[in-house]
Amino acid sequence: MNKIIVLGAGMVGSAMAKDLVVKYHVTVSDLNINVLQKLKSQTPNIETLHLDVTQSSKLKETLQSFDLVICAVPGFLGFETLKTIIEAKKNVIDISFFPENALELDKLAKENNVTAIVDCGVAPGMGNILLGYYNEKLKLTDFECLVGGLPKQKKWPFCYKAPFSPVDVIEEYTRPARYVENGKVIIREALSDCEYVDFNRVGTLESFNSDGLRSIIYTMPHIPNMKEKTLRYPGHVEYIKVLKSSGFFNSETIEVHKTKISPLEFTSKILFNEWNLEEDEEEMTIMRITLKGKNENGKIEEVVYNLYDEYCPKTKISSMSRTTGYTATAAANMFLEGLFNKKGIFPPELVGKHETCFKFFMNYLKERNVNYIKTSNILS
Question: Which of 58, 132, 277, 357 is least crowded, fewest Cβ atoms below 10 Å from its Cβ?
Fold first, then answer.
């Protein structure tokens, strides 16, 4: 039986471990002993390990007995952790979504004979896989990804709950957004170009620019128009802009009653309570991927994939954990079954381009009731 280690026992890391332990020997590590104990009490056949991934020599030593690594550490730890995993000569599926460019580690991965599939979640992740697949089928001119995770119950003022750390969400609201228009990379302020979009079963949401294209800016430079936008309930953006403009997201420290603290730390602490997703709280993931291009008959075809997914009361796993985590566990199974074993750094679009891999992802997710609904139209 293959041995897998999951680095990170958060919501998504735990969901992945529970999915994988049905078939494999699974160990989950984390710095937080409490989350490890909680996971162990829920799923006794998962092994747990107290581990600090920033201690690179200890991490390399620990990884030696495992066949595959799943990296689910926080984004600010992601790049260095992935680098250490590669130096340990271990194959890895990564969902840490770090801000650095993973492709910078491609040479290192090849030198160490490592397969590293990165950004393997829902978005980035499945959107990339769809793009990679249809890039082989159509001469693409347009790609758009609209995506968001939302609570089913709206709570004023933000009408939002985060399945991960508020500081990671704030990063999405402050990092300049890149998109591609007429073949040129455009950089705009995050939260810009806010517009309303209608979705079945949800209603009207607002979308805004966020820096979600990531690797496809480099791997798909031939596609002239590409954009990713985040979805929230109407009104959310205005409240966030007020905080941002007022300096609540600044990282420079200020002194308050002889105590130094950054506004970002303070805001994150406040929002952690405000945005904390309760254990059994119902939430949903909404995504719409739109691809447009010429088909083999020279016709302009538009392909749209819609995802609507909810918290699962049976497994008590959040939708964001399901849609993100099961994409990564699909990749893990696909790799261990020998369907993809090229060496180097591979963002999902370079995996989804292979029809066998694409179908594996879609079937794996469908088996877990994560359903991407396709529609297609000939435009001209």
Answer: 58
Pick 3-122+320-372's CATH classification: 3.40.50.720, 3.10.560.10, 3.30.310.50, 1.10.3720.10.
3.40.50.720
Would you call 212 helix, strand, or coil by DSSP? coil
Q: What CATH architecture applies to the domain 126-310?
A: 2-Layer Sandwich (3.30)
pLDDT of residue 2: 95
Burial 210-235 (b: 16+ CB within 10 A, else e): bbbbbbbbebbeebeebbbbbbbbee
Give the number of residues written for the chain.
380
**Positions of the chain with pLDDT lower than 70, given as ranges:** 163-165
User: Could you give phi then psi for residue 87, rounded to 5 degrees?
Assistant: -65, -25
CA count, 13 A, side-chain hemisphere, 215: 28
pLDDT at 170: 87
The residue written with tokens 């302009």 in the block is: 300
Letter for the amino acid at 192? S
CA distances from 297 to 59, 133, 138, 225 (A): 53, 18, 10, 22
Inter-CA distances, 215 with 100, 102, 186, 221, 325, Å: 10, 8, 15, 10, 19
Could you give the CA distance from residue 345 to residue 337 in angstroms, rounded to a whole number?
19
CA-CA distance, 199 to 286, in Å (whole number)? 8
| pLDDT for the residue 190 | 92
Q: What is the pLDDT of residue 273?
A: 84
**Residues 6 or more apart whose Cβ sits within 8 Å of residue 137:** 295
Q: Is-contact 13 7, C-beta < 8 A?
A: yes
What DSSP letter does each residue of 57-84 carry, written as one string?
HHHHHHHTT-SEEEE---HHHHHHHHHH
